[in-house]
Structures are given as C-alpha cells and as structure tokens.
Amino acid sequence: GLKKKEANVLVVGLDNSGKTTIINQLKPAESKSHDIVPTIGFTVEKFSGKSLSFTAFDMSGQGRYRNLWEHYYKECQGIIFVIDSSDRLRMVVAQEELEQLLNHPDIVGKRIPILFYANKMDMRDALSAVKVAHLLNLDKISTKPWHICASNALTGEGLSEGVEWITGQLK
Ligand code: GTP
Ligand code: MG
C-alpha cells in the first residue's frame, strides 16, 4: 500500500509541561501507556497524522537533561515546544530555554516549523495562548513558521489543531 511520508519532530519544553502526556494522546489506542512518569533522558515515539507519520523525540525537560536537546536539532524537521500555561513562575525559564534553542547554530539558519502548545488550559490559573505567546516573545520569531494552540493533554482538546498545522508545514 501507499506509505505515508515520515517526519522527525523534537518535543521539548520544561519538565512537567505535559510533553509525554501530549504524545501519549496522539498515539493509537493500543500503544498508549496508562501511567506516565517523568521522562529520563528521552524516548522515541511514533504517531500518525492524516498524511504524515511522525517519529517524535520526547525529551526530558528536567534541567540536568536539557543539554540533550541540542543533539537532535540537526535531524529534526519540526519542533513541538510545550508550555505549562499555569506555571507562571517558570514562564521566564521557558522563554530562556526557547531563546537558547532559537539561537543555536543548528537551528538559527533553518526554516523549521515550531508548534507551541500552551498546555494545561484546564487549570484555573492558566494563562491564555495569547498571553503565553507574548511572554515567550513569539512575535520576534521572523525566520520560522510558528503556531500556538491552547491544549488540554488530559482530554486531548486542542491537540489535533496543532498536528494539522505542523502536518501542513511538513508535507
Ligand atoms: P518531563 O518528562 O519531566 O520533561 O515532563 P513532561 O513534559 O513529559 O510532563 P508529563 O507529560 O509527564 O506531565 C506532567 C504532569 O502534568 C502529569 O501529572 C500530567 O498528568 C499532567 N498534565 C499534562 N498535561 C496536562 C493538562 O493539559 N492539564 C492538566 N491539568 N494536567 C496535565
Ligand atoms: Mg516526559
């Protein structure tokens, strides 16, 4: 049969932002895990969109593992950056990590699409996607296509909009 085109995506963001939960929601029912624990190092996961098969590098967001992210910048065709919209205290840390990523030599000259999930939108004190975009200075990104959606990884709300956007960028 016809084989779907494949794409590697790098999934980054601070620890506890919901990266693994998001990828788990996107996976087919039979390969979903039932208890999600903090990622150690990284894991490689597969999921499919309408016209693309994704290989996702689900990186740990813990401080001591963040130095692993850059080793995958060269081989990824897209980036998914996850933010805990309710973690106001660490929004500046997320912004700094994003800035480092954007300034990295393997990323800076590359027209790579970046999808942002303003995750945990169900939390009472969550910031809106517009507010998160503002705090992360997304309007300064001029050389790469980017898109932000609010998401709730527990229910899956908002996730497909993002996958459709990045699929459109990569196919
Ligand atoms: P690391 O692997 O440590 O980098 O974390 P991670 O970004 O993979 O986060 P993970 O998916 O492990 O989720 C962390 C916690 O947040 C878990 O308890 C999840 O159930 C919870 N969580 C994830 N997404 C949401 C969400 O949209 N809403 C709420 N309320 N909780 C969420
Ligand atoms: Mg994880």
Structure, described:
With 171 residues, this protein is of the alpha/beta class. The chain has five helices and six strands, in the order E-H-E-E-E-H-H-E-H-E-H. A six-stranded mixed beta sheet has the order 2-3-1-4-5-6, sandwiched between helices. The radius of gyration is 15 Å and the shape is globular. Guanosine-5'-triphosphate (GTP) binds next to helix 1.
Based on the model shown, name its key terms:
alpha/beta, 171 residues, 5 helices, binds guanosine-5'-triphosphate, binds magnesium ion, six-stranded mixed beta sheet
End-to-end gap: 18 Å
> Could you tell me the number of beta strands?
6
Give the class from helix and strand content and strand pairing.
Answer: alpha/beta
Small molecules bound: guanosine-5'-triphosphate, magnesium ion
Strand-helix topology:
Elements: E1 5-12, H1 19-26, E2 42-48, E3 52-59, E4 78-84, H2 91-103, H3 105-108, E5 114-119, H4 129-135, E6 146-150, H5 159-170
Parallel strand pairs: 1-3, 1-4, 4-5, 5-6
Antiparallel strand pairs: 2-3
Quick summary:
This protein is of the alpha/beta class. The chain contains five helices and six strands, in the order E-H-E-E-E-H-H-E-H-E-H. The radius of gyration is 15 Å and the shape is globular.
